[in-house]
Specification:
single chain, 369 residues, alpha+beta, 9 helices, 6 strands
Length: 369
């Protein structure tokens, strides 16, 4: 199918113009809750605490944990869609340039073909036998015939070039269309994930807002107690006695970068420098150390080399939960640095405070492994 220069150039420019760059929390340990204070002598006793209230707050803690985990999973979906969209965006720009270059090449070849056709027309359409009979110098004619044969071969080659250039142009245009379709799909996936994140965080914030100040304080203690219990159980397994491997040079740099971000807020989808989400922190830390790794915790789990927990060293990444929706960086002494969740800041926490799925190593080929 023939495609006019104007149509293809317009399509190429449309592709370029249509491309849009898609845009684009802490852990501590517990102390027991305070016992109700007795009133002054003679004063009436304070109402006895509701014996079921602690249980209610534990349910609230689990519900909040569930909501924030769902938000973390959706954040991974969002980050994955954004990463794919950025790659599609870059590829579309490349293809748009190739479309324009191919169209210009096709135009030049057409000009050459037109010149060849005009030259052939000027020589006339007599058969070679007639030209030989009418020629005053048969030798010159035969020399000319050789040049004509070369010209015919050149014309055949030109036709081949025209065909290939046209095929390339059509291929690039089809590829650009397919990439743009994928870009739109990733844009929709990103928007869907964003709605999920915002919905889960809003539900968690609403649940927290309904608690009284004292209840919030008790809830915070319950969170710390749960984390301390998990960390103690992890340490009691004897795992720390086996963790004596030193960091590699790049691992040390990654840890230095990550720990330098302590205190900065969690923000889903963020990669610094003012805020981070969990995998934004780990991926940027390793980029700072000279090693590019996948953007999301799920892809870090899928693509990076896995190592036994007992063999991990500072700089390795600990992947949490069965859906690989959270990641922290091991810093030694049984601790990780991580960006916990919305409303919290980057912090150091016990490596065993969350269910460990496994450990991955960004620099497996580093000397001293």
């Amino acid at each position: 199918m023939r495609t006019g220069k104007h149509g293809l150039m317009t399509a190429a420019v449309t592709v370029v113009c249509a491309v849009t760059v898609l845009a684009a929390p802490g852990t501590a340990f517990a102390d027991p809750g305070p016992s109700p204070s007795a009133g002054p002598p003679g004063a009436s006793a304070s109402p006895a605490p509701d014996p079921g209230r602690g249980k209610d707050l534990e349910a609230v803690r689990k519900k909040l944990d569930s909501l924030f985990r769902a938000a973390a999973s959706a954040t991974d979906e969002y980050n994955a869609a954004e990463e794919k969209a950025e790659k599609q965006n870059a590829r579309i720009v490349e293809l748009a340039k190739k479309i324009i270059e191919s169209q210009e090449k096709l135009d030049r070849l057409k000009d050459r073909a037109g010149a060849a056709a005009r030259a052939q027309y000027r020589t006339g359409g007599l058969p070679d036998e007639a030209k030989l009979m009418l020629s005053e110098n048969p030798g010159e004619f035969l020399d000319g015939s050789g040049r004509v044969l070369q010209g015919q071969r050149a014309t055949k080659g030109l036709i081949g070039e025209l065909t290939r250039a046209r095929d390339d142009l059509e291929k690039y245009a089809a590829d650009a269309k397919a990439r743009f379709t994928k870009l739109e799909a990733n844009r929709k996936a990103k928007a869907t994930a964003q709605k999920k994140i915002e919905k889960q965080i809003a539900a968690a914030e609403k649940l927290e807002s309904e608690l009284a100040k004292e209840e919030k304080e008790r809830l915070a203690r319950l969170e710390r107690e749960a984390q301390a219990k998990a960390q103690t159980a992890w340490l009691d397994s004897g795992i720390l006695a086996d963790l004596d491997r030193a960091a590699t040079e790049r691992g040390r740099k990654a840890v230095e970068y990550a720990t330098a971000q302590i205190g900065k807020p969690y923000q889903w989808g963020a990669e610094g420098p003012k805020s981070y989400d969990c995998s934004g922190l780990t991926s940027q830390a390793w980029i700072a150390a000279g090693q590019t790794i996948p953007r999301t915790s799920q892809e870090q789990w899928r693509q990076l080399k896995r190592v036994d927990v007992a063999d991990m060293r500072p700089g390795d990444l600990i992947i949490y939960f069965d859906d690989a929706s959270h990641v922290g960086m091991y810093v030694g002494d049984g601790s990780v640095v991580h960006a916990p969740r919305p409303g919290r800041s980057i912090t150091i926490a016990g490596a065993g405070t969350m269910p460990i799925l496994g450990v991955v190593r960004p620099d497996p080929a580093d000397p001293g492994q």
